[in-house]
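Continuing from the previous page...

OK, I double-checked the sequence for Protein transport protein SEC22 against my notes and this is the correct one:
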Amino acid sequence: MVKSTLIFRNDGLPLSATVDDDQTQNLTEQKNQAKAIVNKVNSNSATEASIRSGNYTIHYLLRESIVFLVIVDKSFSRNLAFAYLQEIANEFINSHGNAALRSDTRPYQFVSFDSFMSKTKKLYQDSRTQSNLDHLNNELSDVKRIMTKNIEDLLYRGESLDDMSDLSYNLRAESKKYRKAARRINLEALIKQYVPVAMVGIFFVFIIWWIFLR
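Thanks. Re-ran it with the corrected sequence; updated structure tokens here:
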């Protein structure tokens, strides 16, 4: 389930966050890791990524110099997590996007946005909603590729979010290459299947022309 949602500007300024209602879970470590992830994000970073952290996963979405993060149980659907982040991002940018990027913006200036995030979180906790969105996003899973890394790799071994972006680009390039190859193979199969039939048809038309119309 969704545990916590945080919104930062990509320069590290916190803009908003949910008031977590599950006090039995201590997410201090994951929230600190989320801040560290924001500090690593730049214009070359992957716009979407998932980072595993113990029993949780931190997903982030970069939109218009704003980083939207959600901390979820590691069993929570990744597609669903990004659908949730997209909805949060769309509403926040529409409502506060320009103000959030101003130089005089204060930390947590948009704390009231928690109201929308809390309502949206409840919607995404509903099992029927999860089932419907999972089905929809599974149809898109081979189109959108979202990279997953371990928090240890990212924060403690010095790996870069830029590397994830490069890997994501390479995967998309490979996917395009294989799609082109598949189309070529299908075209060759169609040619092999129908060219003989076409040749026979042309031959009969020629015979008819030769006998009756010449």
